[in-house]
Amino acid sequence: MTKAEVITKISEKTGIQKDDVTQAVEAFFKVVKDSMADGDNIYVRGFGSFINKKRAKKIARNISKNTAIVIEEHYIPAFKPSKVFVEKIKNSKKIKQMATQA
Length: 102
Hints:
It is built from 4 helices and 5 strands. The protein is an alpha+beta fold. Helix 1 (3-14) packs across helix 2.
């Protein structure tokens, strides 16, 4: 599902115009990105957490040049779903149906 499809669904379910929903969704994404860039984590009860994960310093190999390179300690954005969210997916009949077909 794309962002445009999400906006359309929200618009249909709430009766709010697409332009207003688009602004709200874009504002949400901007707040998430800006907050995480400032080092803040975002916790949405019943949905999940947007967190900054720390990656330790490590030594990697450049195979083409056969040299070792150092990758410094850094942070990456991550999403951790809440228990409620995970249980909803686990108990989804459609997901179970897709799993049996594969």
